[in-house]
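Q: A reviewer asked whether we had any structural model of the full assembly, not just the individual parts. We don't, so I'm hoping you can provide one. Inputs are below.
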Amino acid sequence: MTAETAGRSTRFDWSTWLRRRGWTAGVWLLLLLMILWYSALIPKFGGFQIASISKNSLPLVYLAIGQAVIVIAGGIDLSVGAMLILSNSIAAQLMFEQPFGVTLAIAVLVILIGAVINGVVGWIITVSRVPDIVVTLATSFSLSGVALLVLPSPGGGTSEGFRAMFTGSTTGSGSNFWPSLVAIAIPMALAAWWMKNTRTGLSLYATGSSPTAAYLSGVRTARAKIVSYAVGGGFSALAGLSALAITGSGESRAATGSLFTLRSVAAIVLGGVALTGGIGSVVGAAAAGIILFTLSPILSAMGIDPNSAQVVQGVLIVVVMMVAGIIELRRQRAG
Amino acid sequence: MTISNAPMIEMEVLPDSKWRTALRDHPLLVLGIVLIALVIATAIIEPRYLGVSGLRNTVLIAAPLGIMAAAQTILMLTGGIDLSVGMIATAAAYVAGNQSPNGAAIAIVLGLLVGVVAGSVNGVGVGLFRVNPLIMTLAMSAILLGLFTALSFTVLQGSTTVAQFIKTIGGGSFLGNRIPYNALVWAAVSVLIIYGLRRTGLGRLLYAVGDNPIAVRLAGIRIWQVQIAAYAIAGLLAALAGILLAGRTGAVDLQLAVNFLLPSVAAAVIGGTSIFGGIGSYSGTILGALILGVLTTMLTFLDAGQAIQQIVYGGIVLGLAWLYARVTGTS
Amino acid sequence: MTIEPGVRPLLSTRAVAKSFGNVIALRSVELDVAPGEIHALLGANGAGKSTLVKILSGVYQADAGDVEVEGESVRLSTPAAAVAAGLATVFQDPALIPDLTVGQNLRLTGIDEGEVRVWLERMDGASLDFGALIRELPLPLLRLLDLARALALEPSLLMLDEITAALPADQAEHVFTVMEEWRSRGNSVLFITHRLGEVMRMCDRATVLRDGRTVASVAPQEVGESGLVEAMLGEVVHGEPGAVRTARAGVGQVLLEAVDIGSGDKVNGVSFRLHAGEVLGLAALEGQGQDRLFEVLAGDRRPDRGEILVKGASLRARSPYDAVARGVVLVPPDRLLALLPQRSVRENLGLPLYDRIRRWFSVARDEKEKVADAIDRLSIDTRAARQAGRLSGGNQQKVVLGRWLTAGFQVLLCFDPTRGIDVRTKAQIYGLIRELAADGAAVLLYTSELAEIPLVCDRVQVLYRGSIVDEQPAESATEESLLTAAHGIRSEEVA
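A: Here is a predicted structure for the entire assembly that you could use as a starting point for your response.
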């Protein structure tokens, strides 16, 4: 009996796999196709182009991962962009003209600050019972205000080693794409493993999927929510650090922050994370983050001006969501 | 599998503390008290505030915000949200500015038309294609920004100042400079919306869709119709707010109303409209917009920099929402 | 009857009280569960059973009173604390995470898979794939899984909240076997159910709650079913509560006809005719396609095969709107699907009046009148009229039904309208259904309580695996005859 059931659960079933992981796989496939398409569009495609895509999409990838963690646990964070510019501002102020070792320590500190602040935000949400959207909307005001205090005008800087760590080059531009690929892969893999294999990670899925059932089966849902916000805050801070590594100096415009927030939400939805919580993975969200970034070089390679490119990007997102909605509807009908 | 709530129990009413009951039954009372407290605080900081021009300025600031928040309120009641109100308002104002040489009437009508069209597209996406409202309106915002930036170099080149009539209704005052014209517009809009939500079938349906869409569908109502109507009305209101705003500033650009998005949500939330739908009223939102208006004035008097203003703003929105959730037991 | 002197109760509660806002759920509950017994917790709807279970499982905290486990006072502040105190609960809705697999659900709560498998095998659920998502599994199986998970915690007291509701008979038997085994190991079971037959058969003692108070603690065998009912209702009930077959109209024209309807693999060629003035019962075990059949009939889903005729004309509904427009209306299985919990009773009742755009621009002139009529006819308790969600379950169901009285209809599709509703309200609802039929409406009634079919229906059809397998006149139908037919194959085996 046991052998039979064991065999049943290990047998590979394509339709089940497609239903569970199809979306994530599809998003990565789409990314691959887009990069192939891009390589066909431009005369010379090499390390420099790959590096340019992978390093420049870093901030959005990190934000998407952070947002995905929070949304999977049943929340939504409209302050990730503000957190990005805050950590960017703090790091640029502190890291200016410091040696590599010090900048690394500061980086860890900044990530911790992000995690703690957002953990407190998560705590406020669970205690006050004010909806996530409202709380994070309010904190997005406050955080970008603090960022403006920390760094009133663009400036600051970081060490060359720190820039190379994310971008593969001390000046932030070059054709060594490995560091940036690693910078995408390692945090993504860690987050994905943590989410799916640890009790805490699973408790985030549980809390997002059905808070009542999770609570009844003994999951500490409030803790799960706070943890999700703390992890999300850490990733938002990491995004701010990567942005600093790319540009080499800090910037605290609130508008940049809200643009990033909006893109992070678009990325996770495209990446297959359900805004209702409990469904999706950080892996899909990360791929969608790269896709959103890759759209712009492709459109400009096609000779479309940046403004029209924005229109195209918006329309594409809507069309993808419509298709997803129709697929979902069909699936329900057929089920 | 449906997870149902525990069935509520046949009730027997316990005597409740009087002020709590009063506050729960009249949530607007809390807001009124907060508003008055803020006005008094502002007056202490700057005694001249209680004079004619101080209060006039608050209303002048609050009116466009209040109208934009009306759009937000209507959508939040249905369980939706519109992150494109700021951009719709901007686009409408831009068209109105561009068409101003053709006369104020044409400028206003075309501006409002932009709002209705953009709103309807949102409604079609949300209602018929089931796109998540956050995503749909987010994308709409990006599309409008890109589109109008591109158009501003081609078709919409030209006038960026608005007609005199628009300036008057957006920024002018009457009765010896006491009452701003935009307050009149706001009052008219308020009466219409409050009446509409309470006394029309559509009003009933807006609440119902937000409360339980499945029930509404099973009752034989086509939800997509309600949603398209709601988003179209929201677009119209956002456009109106944008035009009034353009009248106040006198000129239009593509950043005009973008910063009004978050406050529009904040005003509705402060006013007690649930972001999950089904609960709330426009009267609350009006108070919410006024509170934000007084707050802005107060921070200006305090000569607080942009950074401090933002921090305080966030704190107050959060604090009020928290207090409100505490007192009324809803959110 | 109290516990024999000298035996220390495993669990006892003293004067436990709880209210929600200004609603009192429990006034004073005294409950003693002895070691090694199956103890029933009974009460009409709203008596406070579920609240008590939630307090004992750490979901709610009592406002006053004391809970003792083996003589020690315990604080049950979270579900985890309750488990630590040796109390495990299987709730009405399985506490399993729909988007995680079975295995992940167990890992989430730190429960050994092997242990769970052992219990599942004993309940004939060994074939369960631990890699399957919870949302893909049928409800009865989830109940068993939840039970196996609770048993793996090795609780000294196992609490089962309505576990047999919606459980097919054979699986309910498995549950009973496991309960007996748990008792034989010296542990106890607290068993909450509406089915008195199960209490008589399984339970050593019973505690009865009424209006949030313990009113009796008895041995079921001594007082009998009528004694239990009497304690629950606080008055002697004469005869069957649902004896409502007074007004029977003659059968009129065919209002609704199903011709060979099929939908997926759930509904296979269902045909029937529903006449004006009749109540057609539908009997089926859980999961025979009745949910899907009602969805299709109500226009919520298009049939893959076959045709629906309303008064002889084909109905191809794209949404419930089309069905409602032709007078075919649904009272869905879960009243939370049909209620606007945060809106007033009036808005709930008036909802269908606004189905067309031309009615959007004002409140219907006759709304007030129609709503008052419905409230009157159904005797809806309007004390909590500002928020329908705060009404009792019975009143909520009346509101859902009343909506169609305001709007008007010809064919009423009623899906288990009395599930979890107290005896008195049940009688009212069945009375109303008969009245509606007498006024010329046609009613299709699915109910999970087979004993009630003869009381309210004219004839009854039996659905098995998506097909109608039997039809009986309601008057002569008995629980046995319907159950036999509802098991499909078994009836042939018997024959």
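A: Points you may want to mention in the reply: The longest strand of chain B covers residues 173-174. The two ends of chain B are 27 Å apart (CA to CA).
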